[in-house]
Write a structure and sequence with these properties.
This protein has 66 residues and is mostly helical. The protein contains two helices and no strands. It has one domain. Helices cover 83% and strands 0% of the residues. The chain is rod-shaped, with a radius of gyration of 18 Å.
Length: 66
């Protein structure tokens, strides 16, 4: 599930903590790493697209004289 970046960081910390506590096998954690990285990249792209849409909207309004 895709979350905000802060939550993503917490999830990564939980995985690391669980490995050290022996609750999660290191191989499982290693297999989660690429998925968590991909999730973070999606969040970054989504945030960028939101910011770009806002700039485009402001530019349209400025050109239209609003």
């Amino acid at each position: 599930m895709i979350h905000e970046e802060g939550v993503q960081g917490e999830e990564q910390l939980n995985v690391i903590t669980d490995v050290y506590a022996g609750k999660l096998h290191p191989r499982i954690a290693a297999s989660l790493a690429p998925l968590m990285h991909l999730q973070l990249r999606v969040l970054e792209k989504t945030e960028f697209e939101k910011r770009l849409a806002k700039v485009e909207r402001l530019l349209r309004d400025l050109i239209a004289g609003n």
